[in-house]
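We close this part of the discussion by returning to an individual protein. The sequence in question and its structure tokens are set out directly beneath this paragraph:
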Amino acid sequence: MKQSGIVMPGYKITDYMLILPLPHELSEKIGVIRDNFNEKFKVPSTPSKPNLMIASFKQFAMMEERIINRLHTIAMGYPPFKVELRDFGSFPSHTIYIGVTSKIPVQGLVKKVRSDAQALLKLDNDNKPYFALEPHLTIGRKLKPWQYEKAWLEYSTLHFTGRFIASEMVLLKRNEGDRSWQLARHFEFQNLPVETKQGQ
């Protein structure tokens, strides 16, 4: 959505991404795989570190504090969980990724964010939040048909394993048109009994 004319302060639109961050060692390992992939198949590199996406959305900057408060409440009541990564998968013709074999706890978190925060994350009817209900860790996306076919021929036979404990989720943000993401907030999973009344 392109903005024209003068934008009032607070009415500036920001891109957000809610992710499960990877431990440093695993992130480095997957970063090397991604860099090799980009080099081999002539794919432009992405400025963000490897991560598992929970949701992405656009929203007015002035809504950020309310969103942070809601996500903090969700995280307080959510337990840490184990994430298992294994081998490579693909969304035919455009994306190659590392598979998540322990999908249920990740999907549970995505559904919890969707049910408790969806209304806050929706900018308008043209800009609805995206919830990653099929957990995966992207290696190459927006591939051209030749890139996909050549890469999948190779990566469908390769093996990869990794695991980590997801103990927090992280909200990243960037201004429209920027390439690099900034940290907005960490939310630690605390597994506490949290009571929230509707409309809080």
Remarks:
- The two ends are 30 Å apart (CA to CA).
- Strands lie at 13-21, 51-60, 81-91, 95-100, 130-131, 136-140, 161-166, 168-175, 182-188.
